[in-house]
Design goal:
The chain is an alpha+beta fold. It has two domains: 93 residues, Helix Hairpins (Orthogonal Bundle), CATH 1.10.287; 115 residues, Cupredoxins -  blue copper proteins (Immunoglobulin-like). The strands form two sheets. Strands 3-2-1-5-8 form a five-stranded mixed β-sheet, with no helix packed on it. It has a five-stranded mixed β-sheet with strand order 4-10-9-6-7. It binds copper (II) ion. Copper (II) ion binds next to loops.
């Protein structure tokens, strides 16, 4: 929690969110350590080489070796972190299972969302004044088929640390594994027109058995 607050992240509510938070912390603390080291070197140099009454100011010409090392070290750090952490992580997050436990077709439109559960006769349709609720089970693999019927939108749930474009004529498919029961908020993160700011929705993550009852009731079970 303290880590999340200091690095500015919401507490992740999916397995994938925890992976991505780990990556973010690694970058954040690596950056903070490099900053502290660089700042300490600057302070040391200013103090050590300052102009003094008994010594003239030291003026150095360029130093090719130091300059090239100063380029290569940051380059190696960025490339190393990207290829060792971000690249494999993104591949892991993008991986799809062959048989998800639940599938939800998410359709964006100006200006709300529709959440449909194929095979269960459930269709939750929002309006700009009535936020729809996406209901998901905890501890299961949910596959989302994301699309749009008009213009580009973006499906964003901050607590999932995940955002994906909703593009007309194209289905973006991804898996999420919610792991924390609770209620979260989501919204459109791509400016799509005058009512874009009204494209809010909520996400309800239920325990597996409660979700099964909700599905069996065709989404009519009242959720408290
Ligand atoms: Cu929008």
């Amino acid at each position: 929690m303290a880590l999340a607050a200091c690095a500015g992240l919401p507490r992740p509510a999916t397995v994938q969110g925890h992976w991505m938070a780990g990556n973010w912390y690694t970058f954040w603390f690596t950056g903070a350590a490099i900053y502290a080291f660089t700042a300490a070197l600057i302070v040391y140099s200013v103090a050590r080489w300052r102009k003094r009454s008994d010594r003239p100011a030291v003026q150095l010409a360029d130093n090719f070796l130091i300059e090239i090392v100063g380029v290569l070290i940051p380059l190696a750090l960025v490339l190393g972190l990207f290829f060792m952490l971000t690249w494999p992580l993104e591949n892991k997050v993008d991986r799809l299972v062959a048989t998800p436990d639940v599938t939800v077709n998410v359709t964006a439109f100006r200006w709300s969302w529709q959440f449909a559960y194929p095979g269960h006769d459930i269709r939750i349709l929002g309006t700009p004044t009535t936020e729809p609720q996406l209901v998901l089970p905890a501890g299961e693999t949910v596959q989302i088929n994301l699309s749009s019927i008009d213009v580009d939108h973006a499906f964003w749930i901050p607590a999932f640390l995940y955002k994906k474009d909703a593009i007309p004529g194209y289905v973006n498919r991804f898996d999420i594994n919610p792991d924390r029961i609770g209620q979260y908020w989501g919204e459109c993160a791509e400016f799509c027109g005058l009512q874009h700011a009204r494209m809010h929705f909520t996400v309800r993550v239920l325990a597996r058995d409660q979700f099964a009852r909700w599905l069996a009731s065709h989404g009519k079970l009242a959720l408290r």
